[in-house]
Amino acid sequence: xxxxxxxxxxxxxxxxxxxxxxxxxxxxxxxxxxxxxxxxxxxxxxxxxxxxxxxxxxxxxxxxxxxxxxxxxxxxxxxxxxxxxxxxxxxxxxxxxxxxxxxxxxxxxxxxxxxxxxxxxxxxxxxxxxxxxxxxxxxxxxxxxxxxxxxxxxxxxxxxxxxxxxxxxxxxxxxxxxxxxxxxxxxxxxxxxxxxxxxxxxxxxxxxxxxxxxxxxxxxxxxxxxxxxxxxxxxxxxxxxxxxxxxxxxxxxxxxxxxxxxxxxxxxxxxxxxxxxxxxxxxxxxxxxxxxxxxxxxxxxxxxxxxxxxxxxxxxxxxxxxxxxxxxxxxxxxxxxxxxxxxxxxxxxxxxxxxxxxxxxxxxxxxxxxxxxxxxxxxxxxxxxxxxxxxxxxxxxxxxxxxxxxxxxxxxxx
Length: 414
Fold this sequence. Notes:
14 helices; mainly alpha; globular; 79% helix; single chain
């Protein structure tokens, strides 16, 4: 697990280095901010249509082989881009094609690597391992974004893509030496019916739709993703607008958000029994902090609120990921992650435009306050509806001193 965490840190740093440089590269080629957004959408779009297939592939194929091959392919794409940039042959069309290929490979790589990490620890330690993964992700993001500027400044844009390619090869080299831990979840085949339906996409969709806690988790995460959490958008407009701060001030806010994300990952790694109720409670708490942040009279007050906002968001995300990866039986987890990736892509593509429209109508303060209240009301209403539908045990009336017939049998049944 230590080797896997180190490999993921290197890979995340390389990925964020490339993502940072890619936006600058698109601006350099086209001079259009809209084209930059388009390139990001093209890379994310395959997850909307192909994540279900990717999840099914992860359930069907050997996990270590799948993760190693997908990492090697991602490295190949990064090296190809580096060569095209170095030879000044990269056009907007070729960049879009490479972005789409990267997004397609990621539909398999994401669930394969996530579930491979869970195989390295006993079942009871999976929530902690997911927290460690979140910590590694946030740390890699900080380091990668910082290294991007240094690498481009001294070695050029192509070097950033080459470094990302090397990071993928490092992960590929580590995977063959990983061994499942004693007590790790064993992936067994589903119940055989004489058909090949036990490994189909439909089975994953049916399991997700019939599992109330996964549907509830999707609802909590969806409303939070659309009306909150897009702090890179809402807080940027709030800081540079009503609070009259500059880019440096928003850079400070972004740093505090990143630090809060790391602290939250550390706290989340200590969760032993994450649940949807914990996720909902944390999401509602973060939404209330968002409401207060929208009313901040000064940048200093906002900075005080941003840290707990980021911590709560990170712990909530870690708890939700743990529920998502441990609730399904092992032979279905890849397909369930595929369903989740498709749903999350819808939120990722639709959330920012919806939030932008809300800011146009209500301003940055109004968007933060309204969005936070919508999250709280939505989560509260969902909890109340679930409570009403949950049957309560009917007590058996007895007279004082009278023994309940069959008490031992009832206790065994319970």
